[in-house]
Amino acid sequence: MEENKQTSDRTPAPTILVIFGASGDLTARKLVPALYNLGCENLLPEHFHLIGYGRSSMTDDAFRDSMKKAVSEYSRSPFKDDLWNRLSPNFSYHAGPYDDLDSFRALSEKIKEIEDSKDVDFQCLFYVSTPPGVFKPILENLGNSGLARRHRRTAFASKVVVEKPFGRDLETACELNAVITRRFEESQVFRIDHYLGKETVQSLLAQRFSNVIFEPVWNRHHVSCVQITVAEDLGVGSRGGYYDRSGALRDMVQNHVMQLLALTAMEPPSSLDPEAIRDEKVKALKAIRPLDLEGDDTDVVRARYRAGLVNGDKAIGYLEEEGIPEDSITETFAALRLSLDNWRWKGVPFYLRSGKRMARKVSEVAVLFRRPPAILFSEGDRFNVSPNCLVLRIQPDEGVTLTLNSKTPGIETRLQPVELSFGYETTFQSNTPEAYERLILDAMNGDGTLFIRGDETETSWGIFSPVLQRWAEDGSKGMESYTAGTFGPLAADKLLLRDGHEWRLQAG
Q1: Comparing C-alpha atoms, which of 182, 139, 140, 144 is closest to residue 161?
Q2: Considering 108, 142, 163, which residue would you say is the last residue of a domain?
């Protein structure tokens, strides 16, 4: 067959993308709109084919129609008939169970027919966008059918993308990794966390290592604490049944929040090579001290929301939500104090919190620096000296803010904090790509920088599995509550006050 070369650094080799769970919400809202937007940017390969795999029967035309509706509704780029007419003929649907080997063999034949018709070698990217209960049979059948081994150790080797949740605890994460490594080499595996595709998250490395003013002070000598907040103003909605089996710690903290911590705390990598970066992330996670779960000085707070007002609208409590059992012990909020036992961060607390039905939707990393010595500007209220603070805003307004102290206009010398700020939208005046666009493109190109390695997810679960086990044993004992429309319970404030700190974004 004709050997195809990539036409640019960002244009992948000829690709057949197979989405398992093609009739699901993620496919419609994120994956196919992301593919369409990549097409708008001329970043899809010349030879590209999408196969939607699902358990329900559907014709190719019906699949195309449903994807057209999804693109029209959810794409950030305006719908263009000419582009769609070029892309959609290469969309097809394949129906079959996830646990049926013959269906995967039929899929393999379909892929070979596409290759033969184009007389071109294709790489296959298998995207597992299904409930976690069928991850294992899909991965096993990709191996047993030979699909995992196609063009192995060549530029056209098969790749697999696995959505979260990647296990429910350390034991199940290890089991899933074992299934994967029996069928795929680690270089073929892309464990996805869409937070890593957000512009500001990617910018963390750039802010740290391309600006000489930051890296010299990014350590215990100058930083007093780091605060990471991932807050949602929405409740569980129609996802109550799923969410009650998960909770805030599993749903957000173990993955999204810990990725933010790893990028903030890691040592400088030797290069921008994906493995060099992921090596340093794992080292940072391994430096985290086991959490103290005993007594009044515990490192962990859990809570769930009760009725309140969110953005001026009444919100019911978690136990009144649809699908939530009366005896639920699931948390909708988690706050933690983590300590890293390494040279850079010894003695610097990392405070993490995430929850639903909070005051507003906001995700940020805040690095709070130590106060200057009280020598020159220390006379009470006259000098309102605040600690310098660097905030990386991940959503909803992506950007960076740096808080400094400045003299106010007037005859007397008075100080007040001021902010230097930039937003991606206003500064770069661009329609920022969605996270899935970057991540799908990187997976097609075999770039694992923004994906999670197997040892990384196991290390993260190793931190939180003891917490989950303890909560399961305690039942509702120790469960705090907070009013919907606030930033969490009082216990989360006390977590910081013990160290002489307070949340940058205050509860209330």
Answers
A1: 139
A2: 163
